[in-house]
């Protein structure tokens, strides 16, 4: 049996990166110290400056040692990515039409439920009236049979 050996390429070992801890002196006193960036992505083919947004290949990436961007501004990143994504997502969908349609749906559902209750009440009323009409008809038939019987008896007596 021929032996086959596979060669596995291994990357050179990497050194651990020093990540600055959040000590009380590095934390901002006011949340207003965070910078907010609200820019839309550049169009294809444009030469817009995108240096405000860190990339994996640039030296300003938070994990790189080049420039140590966090130490220059007191340990606070110039872009709050969570805020940026939250702002973008909150403006991506306009909640007003959704709220209006939800309110319209609730109103329609309430009106439909009210009409259903009204129909049930009218059906119960119609059934009560039908029961009363049947009782009156039965009484009328009974009275008509008695009248017919009395007429027949009277006819026999007269002839």
Layout of strands and helices, then pairs:
Elements: H1 69-72, H2 81-92, H3 95-158
Give the helix level as a range of percent.
40-55%
Which word captures the global form? Answer: rod-shaped
| Class derived from helix and strand content | mainly alpha
Count of helical regions: 3
Question: How many runs of DSSP E, i.e. beta strands?
Answer: 0
What are the segments in which pLDDT stays under 50 over at least 5 consecutive residues?
Answer: 66-72
Measured by DSSP, the beta-strand proportion falls in under 5%
Q: State the order of secondary-structure elements, H for helix, E for strand.
A: HHH
**What is the overall pLDDT average?**
74
Termini separation comes to: 132 Å
Q: How many strands, which pairing sense, and closed or not: the largest β-sheet?
A: none
Nearest-angstrom radius of gyration? 44 Å
Supply database-style keywords.
single chain; 159 residues; mainly alpha
Task: Write up this protein.
The chain has 159 residues and is an all-alpha fold. The protein has helices at 69-72, 81-92, 95-158. The radius of gyration is 44 Å and the shape is rod-shaped.
